[in-house]
Structure formats: structure tokens, C-alpha cells
Amino acid sequence: MDSGRRRFLGRCTAVMTGVAAPFALPRPALPESHAATDVGAGASTATDQRTGTGHERFMRLAVEQARRNPRWPFGAVIVHTRTGDVLGSGVNTGADSPLLHGEVVAMNDYVRRHGNQGWADTTLYTTGEPCSMCMSAMAWANLRRVVWASSIDEIRRTGVIQIALSAREVAAAARSFYTPELLLGGVLADHTDHLFQQAQRLRERHPEAPRAEVS
Fold first, then answer.
1. Is 197 buried (19+), middle (13-18) or exposed (0-12) by CB count in 10 A?
2. DSSP letter string over the chain?
3. What does the pLDDT look like over 16-28, one tens digit per residue?
4. Distance from C-alpha of 199 to C-alpha of 68, rounded to nearest angstrom
5. Predicted pLDDT of residue 8
6. Is 186 left (phi over 0), alpha (psi -120 to 50) or beta?
7. Region 186-208: what's the mean pLDDT?
8. d(CA 117, CA 82)
9. Is the pLDDT of residue 210 over 80?
10. How would you classify residue 188: left for phi > 0, otherwise alpha for psi between -120 and 50, otherwise beta?
């Protein structure tokens, strides 16, 4: 084989090796913003290329759940990634237990209806960026696709206490056993930011109600 052909094949091998490289999580220092950003293969900020379904449709279902608790509007739904069927839903009921954030309530509903299985085939939509507890639960479940609206930073600006860890940082810390396909923020954030602002005003007008209900 002449030297020119060897150099050509060497370049092709390098390109193919790059294509086949395993997916790696981004560094936690990636900026958080209300603009839709994603982590994972085959994802789009406006439309999920894998399903062909706009994320806004399912986020609106999460918002419907959130409206059931106007003081703490953290709502979530779990859908089958391929079919779009709603498999679980929930809203924050933290007054009953500190564990019952909207995402956890939706996960409990999913388990009640479908058992503790099949998580990798689902996508969870939530009105607020998952806190470290909820994101950890998703990592343990191997729920690989998570879409949220308002960011933790924006939620904190409306008087809701939050642990200062982003969902992406928690996912990165679990990289030894958890590889998400999609972490997408900012979907309908303008709408949910307004929802959280309304909730803040409601809590300020009626401070006597329980406050131990956070995302």
C-alpha cells in the first residue's frame, strides 16, 4: 500500500473514531439560562427529533398540574417518550411531607400505575428545574430525559428556598452510573416565571398558610 493511501485511511479512521466516541456529560460550569438548552444526543430546543413532538405540549400539561397548588406551582408529568402517553402526574404537596415535591409525586404516581420499571423509556416535564433531591431520584431511577421550565435561579428570586445545585450538576455528579439523554431547560419559562411570581404575591398576601412546600 503506498504512503498516500495509508495517510487517507488514517484520516478516515480518526474521523470514524470521533463519531463513535461515547457521550460525555458537560462540565457543571455550563451557564444556566431561560433560553432552552439541552444535553444529550438527538435533541432540539424546539422539537424532540426522536419523537417529533414539541416539548411545549407536554409542559402545558405540567402547568395544568401546577395550577392545582397556586401558592407553590410545581407540577410535573411523565410521558412515554415514543408514544406521548401520559404515564404519571403530580403537583407539590410539601405541606403533607417534605419529600413530596411535584416530580416525586409524579414518580410515585407512575410507580403506582406501572410499577418500578421502564423509566428509561420516559420523559419527565416539570414547571421548575428539579432540585437536588428530585434530580437524584431521577438518576437512581435511570429516568434519562428531563425537561423543565423555570430555572432554580429564577425560582429563588420569587422567594422559594432552593439548594444551590443545578440539575445538570447533580446529573454530572452521578456520571458513574447515570447518563441522561436529554436535560432541557427553559421550555415555556416565560409562562412559568409569571406563575411563580403570582405565587409569591399570593404568599405575601396570605403569609399565615404553610410555607414548607418547595420544588
1. middle
2. --HHHHHHHHHHHHHHHHHHPPP-PPPTTSPP-SS-B--STT--SSEETTTTEEHHHHHHHHHHHHTTSTTS--EEEEEETTT--EEEEEE--TTT-TT--HHHHHHHHHHHHH-S--GGGEEEEEEE---HHHHHHHHHHT--EEEEEE-HHHHHTTT----S--HHHHHHHTTTT---SEEEB-TTHHHHHHHHHHHHHHHHH-TTS------
3. 333 333 333 333 3
4. 12
5. 42
6. left
7. 95
8. 16
9. no
10. left
The angle formed by the CA atoms of residues 97, 132 and 60, to the nearest 5 degrees, is 80
C-alpha 51/C-alpha 61 separation (Å) is: 17
Whole-structure pTM value: 0.77
pLDDT tens digits along 107-166: 999 999 999 999 999 999 999 999 999 999 999 999 999 999 999 999 999 999 999 999
Of 120, 110, 104, 203, whose CA–CA distance to 155 is shortest? 203
